[in-house]
């Protein structure tokens, strides 16, 4: 994934946790095509502060992405992510079309980026009833091509789709469906299943980001599932595995005997306490920061 540097003449934007989770979700979605595509985030289109959320570039435009969301993709694919509390209306739609047209206009020589090689995608979890009504009033034809995937025609010279997260397949697109408060137990469990199926370090890094965003928005649900679901418990431990190992090694270097289980037991108990309360960020910090960990041992009276 490539991240574009913002022109120096403008102030740095505030990146939201939801956007980082969405980009990580795209990385999982495109995992099998990771050698064929590049993902660029915060793509700046001018020094006046105009930027796109995500740009996905196919290294070989002839490569077809064989999943519902990816079938519309061309060589240059503009994506706009709307957070759970963001609006989606005809003006947002117009803004994304403007991004795509401005991006096309930057091709050198003229028309080196063809309209036929561009697509635009807008994601929102909730069904955008008002936006669809407004677009239809202006001549758009909207078709649900696949579950949750709506093609919009008659409004642009390039293909456009609007993704409705709540109607996407709950297993295939769990990585997006958990990025909101009120995520269902089914979505959380589906993402857990997705998270444990691949042990690659880069894959797990994306999983880690999505988990952190989702847990922050759904602390009570994760705490309850951690207590009720053994597989969820194991998945959360796997999330912390590297930090856990490093904490144990640091303990050994400070004089603990390798055969002694006391330090390991205390740390495991602390992690269980923190996970059961949905305090994942504290768990990660505790594994890395000895002083912070000692304070938590005292807080939970773990001797």
Task: Quickly describe the structure.
With 303 residues, the chain is α/β, with parallel strands linked by helices.
Give a quick set of tags describing it.
Trna Endonuclease, Chain: A, domain 1; 303 residues; eight-stranded mixed β-sheet
Task: Please describe what this structure looks like.
With 303 residues, the chain is α/β, with parallel strands linked by helices. The protein folds into 2 domains: 2-168, Trna Endonuclease, Chain: A, domain 1 (3-Layer(aba) Sandwich), CATH 3.40.1350; 240-299, no CATH class. The protein is built from 12 helices and 8 strands. Strands 1-2-3-4-5-8-7-6 form an 8-stranded mixed beta sheet, sandwiched between helices. Helix 1 packs across helix 6 (201-217) and helix 7 (219-228) crosses helix 8. The longest helix has 17 residues, at 201-217. Residues 2-16 have low confidence and may be disordered.
Sheet/helix structural class: alpha/beta
Q: Which overall shape is indicated by the principal axes computed on the Cα atoms?
A: elongated
**Major sheet details:** 8 strands, mixed
Number of helices: 12
Proper CATH architecture of the largest domain: 3-Layer(aba) Sandwich
Chart the SSEs and their pairings:
Elements: E1 2-3, H1 17-29, E2 37-44, E3 51-58, E4 76-81, H2 90-105, E5 118-124, H3 129-137, E6 141-146, E7 149-153, E8 160-164, H4 174-177, H5 185-195, H6 201-217, H7 219-228, H8 230-239, H9 241-253, H10 262-276, H11 280-288, H12 290-299
Parallel strand pairs: 1-2, 4-5, 5-8
Antiparallel strand pairs: 2-3, 3-4, 6-7, 7-8
């Amino acid at each position: 994934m490539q991240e574009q540097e913002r022109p120096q003449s403008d102030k740095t934007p505030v990146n939201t946790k939801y956007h980082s989770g969405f980009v990580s979700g795209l990385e999982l979605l495109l995992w099998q095509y990771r050698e064929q595509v590049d993902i660029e985030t915060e793509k700046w289109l001018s020094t006046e502060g105009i930027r796109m959320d995500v740009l996905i570039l196919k290294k070989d435009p002839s490569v077809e992405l064989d999943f519902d969301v990816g079938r519309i993709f061309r060589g240059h694919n503009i994506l706009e992510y709307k957070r759970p509390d963001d609006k989606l209306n005809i003006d947002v739609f117009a803004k994304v079309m403007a991004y795509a047209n401005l991006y096309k206009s930057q091709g050198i020589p003229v028309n080196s980026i063809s309209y036929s090689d561009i697509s635009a995608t807008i994601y929102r979890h909730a069904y955008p009833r008002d936006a669809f009504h407004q677009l239809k009033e202006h001549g758009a034809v909207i078709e649900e091509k696949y579950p949750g995937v709506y093609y919009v025609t008659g409004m642009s010279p390039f293909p456009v789709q609007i993704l409705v997260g709540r109607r996407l397949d709950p297993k295939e697109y769990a990585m997006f469906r958990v990025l909101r408060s009120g995520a269902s137990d089914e979505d959380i469990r589906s993402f857990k299943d997705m998270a444990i199926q691949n042990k690659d370090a880069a894959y797990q890094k994306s999983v880690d980001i999505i988990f952190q965003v989702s847990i922050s928005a759904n602390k009570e649900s994760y705490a309850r599932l951690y207590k009720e679901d053994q597989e969820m418990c194991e998945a959360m431990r796997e999330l912390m595995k590297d930090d856990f190992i490093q904490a144990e090694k640091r303990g050994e270097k400070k004089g603990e005997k390798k055969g002694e289980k006391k330090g390991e037991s205390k740390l495991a108990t602390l992690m269980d306490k923190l996970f059961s309360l949905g305090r994942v960020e504290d768990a990660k910090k505790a594994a890395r920061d000895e002083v912070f960990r000692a304070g938590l041992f005292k807080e939970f009276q773990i001797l």
